[in-house]
Design goal:
Layout (H helix, E strand, L loop, with lengths): L1 H15 L29 E3 L6 H18 L2 E6 L8 H12 L9 E7 L4 E6 L9 H16 L3 H15 L5
Parallel strand pairs: 1-2, 2-3
Antiparallel strand pairs: 3-4
Helix pairs in contact: 2-5, 4-5
Keywords: Signal
Protein name: TPM domain-containing protein
InterPro entries: TPM_dom
Length: 174
C-alpha cells in the first residue's frame, strides 16, 4: 500500500515533466534491426551523448521542441551519439524512438533527429503516424538543409534549422 501512495505522485511528476528524466520504457519485443544498438537513457528533449552542444544550446533547442509539442501535440527529440557501434544509422534512430516511446501512443507520431558526428551520419526517424506528413524525401531535404552548418561545426545551428524545417512541414510554422 505504501508503494501505491508514492507511485501516484511520481506518475504525476513524470507526466508533468514531459520528456525530462523519464525512464526508458521496457519493450516487449525488439526487432532484429535493433541488434547492436546500445541502450541510451533519454535525458530530455535533447539527449547529447556525443557532447557536441553547450548547456545553453541544449536549453534553447529543448525550449523550441517543447513549443513544437505544445502547438502540434507531436513529439520530437534530438539525440546525439559518440558512436553507432556498427549499427545502421536508420536502425539506431528508429530503435531509440521505439525504446523511448517518442510520440503519442495511439498516433505513433514521434520524430527523432539522430546525429552521429564521429561517423558523420544523421537520420530523421519518424513513427508510422508521421510517415505521410514527413516522407523520406522531405526528411532527406531537411538533412540537406542541416548539412552545411554541420560541416562548419555548428551543430546547434544545424539542429535548429532541422527542427524549424520539420516543424514547418508538420504544422508549426513558427
Amino acid at each position: 500500500m505504501g508503494r501505491t501512495v508514492l507511485a501516484a505522485p511520481l506518475a504525476i511528476l513524470l507526466v508533468a515533466s514531459g520528456c525530462t528524466a523519464a525512464p526508458e520504457p521496457a519493450t516487449a519485443k525488439e526487432t532484429a534491426a535493433c541488434d547492436g544498438v546500445p541502450r541510451m537513457m533519454l535525458a530530455g528533449r535533447v539527449t547529447d551523448a556525443a557532447d557536441i552542444l553547450t548547456g545553453e544550446e541544449e536549453a534553447r533547442l529543448s525550449d523550441r521542441l517543447a513549443r513544437y509539442e505544445t502547438r502540434t501535440k507531436h513529439q520530437m527529440v534530438v539525440a546525439t551519439t559518440p558512436s553507432l557501434h556498427s549499427a545502421r544509422v536508420d536502425n539506431f534512430g528508429t530503435c531509440l524512438g521505439s525504446r523511448w516511446a517518442i510520440g503519442r501512443k495511439h498516433h505513433d507520431d514521434g520524430i527523432v533527429i539522430l546525429v552521429a558526428p564521429n561517423e558523420r551520419q544523421m537520420r530523421i526517424a519518424t513513427g508510422t503516424g508521421m510517415e505521410k506528413i514527413l516522407t523520406d524525401d522531405k526528411a532527406l531535404a531537411v538533412i540537406r538543409e542541416m548539412t552545411p552548418q554541420f560541416e562548419q561545426g555548428d551543430y546547434a545551428g544545424g539542429l535548429a534549422t532541422g527542427i524549424d524545417a520539420i516543424a514547418a512541414q508538420t504544422g508549426d510554422p513558427e
